[in-house]
């Protein structure tokens, strides 16, 4: 499985996948899929209710009842894992998991109904729960095997399913607290599992992360959340492929030109990720950058004097540290998986820039690069042709 972004399936929004693979155990670090694919944890749509009014104990904050849907999709010829885990981390400060379902299941359990209490905790349904629509419909399907939940009271949640995990859909519920005026949740999803392998093969099981955003409803009605918060009317379900933009943040005119390119790509239904989004919250940039590079279909590297100097080891010490970190990741991927990452890294030359400003590692003399004459579909025709024709490759 690759870094596929939003798709629609049976009129539901698919947020993404977490691949489950076997890789060479002799390597101490492995940062991208390069092994035997066994399946994926597929992340389905989230449904949210806003709890309104918020109980007095949480005055000044927003509260949400969240239904999380995911599926273990294991290849037919693969034994069922002894256990499999899916987790969601909320990176924004002030986001708190107050409670979660299923919380602890020690064996097969029947379907059950729950309600939300005034302390925003789940309790067996008795009297209809707290607060109107936000308390309705908390239905937990039957659990065929043990489930453990961790992270309650923190900014993450994990569900571990054990007892030889069969393929199929799963449902979880969250009672979530966010800061006032929040409009979106930034989520990093990850998966782990255990599968016995023959020692002589020296393989280890791994799962890779994915990152996405979910919109927060501003009313108590149920909504199905796409994976991106965008200011325009373009439907998230039509955005593809996923693209990460790597560039130097100087001078200011160059940053503005990069933003103009990103706006053009989004208007052409490309799922663009770059570091001028979501600046109102503190972020772990190391995790954010690594996740988006690995899960994007393409990385657009914007030529500039600063990018050339970083790539050619000519940048002044301590300058452009963020860009240096991005470049080192890309250079490492090119070294280890030359054919794949030569295809996925797209050097782009913006108006007023030169192909001479492309780092040597990105092969400006013997590989393709894409000149953007102006920020219109015609001016970026070559780049858009590659993105459109290759959207379904991964």
Provide mean pLDDT, rounded.
80
How many strand units? 23
At the third CATH level, what is the topology name of the largest domain?
Answer: Leukocidin-like
The first-level CATH class of the largest domain is given as Mainly Beta
Oligomer: single chain
Provide the domain count: 2
- Tally of contiguous helical segments: 6
Please name the CATH architecture of the largest domain: Distorted Sandwich
Q: What does the largest sheet look like? A: 7 strands, antiparallel
* Helix percent band: 10-25%
Low-confidence segments: 1-14, 26-33, 221-238
Shape descriptor: globular
Question: What percent strand?
Answer: 35-45%
Series of H and E elements: EEEEEEEEEEEEEEEEEEEHEHEHHHEEH
Rg measurement, Å? 23 Å
By secondary-structure content and strand pairing, the structural class works out as: alpha+beta
Instruction: Please report the distance between the alpha carbons of the first and last residues.
Output: 7 Å
């Amino acid at each position: 499985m690759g870094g596929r972004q939003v798709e629609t399936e049976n009129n539901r929004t698919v947020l993404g996948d977490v691949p489950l693979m076997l890789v060479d155990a002799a390597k101490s670090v492995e940062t991208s899929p390069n092994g035997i694919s066994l399946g994926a944890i597929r992340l389905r749509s989230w449904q949210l209710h806003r709890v309104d009014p918020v109980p007095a104990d949480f005055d000044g904050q927003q509260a949400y009842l969240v239904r999380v849907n995911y599926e273990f999709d294991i290849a037919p010829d693969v034994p069922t894992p002894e256990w499999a885990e899916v987790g969601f981390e909320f990176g924004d400060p002030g986001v708190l998991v107050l409670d979660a379902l299923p919380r602890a299941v020690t064996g097969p359990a029947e379907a059950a109904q729950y309600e939300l209490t005034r302390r925003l905790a789940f309790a067996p349904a008795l009297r209809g729960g707290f607060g109107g629509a936000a308390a309705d419909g908390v239905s937990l399907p039957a659990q065929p095997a043990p489930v453990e939940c961790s992270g309650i009271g923190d900014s993450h949640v994990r569900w571990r399913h054990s007892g030889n995990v069969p393929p199929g859909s799963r449902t979880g519920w969250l009672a979530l607290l966010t800061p006032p005026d929040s409009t979106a949740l930034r989520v990093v999803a990850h998966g782990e599992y255990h599968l016995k392998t023959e020692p002589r093969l020296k393989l280890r099981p791994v799962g890779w992360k994915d990152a996405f955003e979910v919109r927060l409803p501003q009313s108590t009605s149920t909504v199905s959340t796409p994976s991106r918060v965008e200011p325009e009317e373009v439907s998230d379900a039509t955005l593809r492929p996923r693209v990460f933009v790597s560039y130097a943040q100087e001078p200011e005119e160059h940053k503005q030109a990069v933003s103009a390119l990103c706006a053009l790509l989004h208007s052409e239904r490309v799922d663009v990720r770059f570091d001028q989004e979501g600046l109102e919250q503190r972020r772990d940039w190391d995790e954010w950058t690594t996740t988006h590079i690995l899960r994007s279909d393409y990385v657009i590297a914007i030529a500039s004097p600063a990018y050339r100097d970083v790539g050619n080891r000519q940048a002044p010490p301590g300058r452009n540290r963020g860009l240096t970190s991005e470049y080192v990741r890309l250079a490492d991927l090119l070294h280890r998986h030359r054919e794949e990452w030569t295809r996925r890294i797209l050097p782009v030359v913006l108006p007023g820039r030169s192909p001479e400003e492309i780092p040597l590692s990105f092969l400006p003399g013997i590989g393709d690069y894409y000149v953007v004459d102006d920020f219109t579909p015609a001016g970026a025709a070559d780049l858009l042709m590659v993105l459109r024709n290759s959207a379904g490759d991964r």
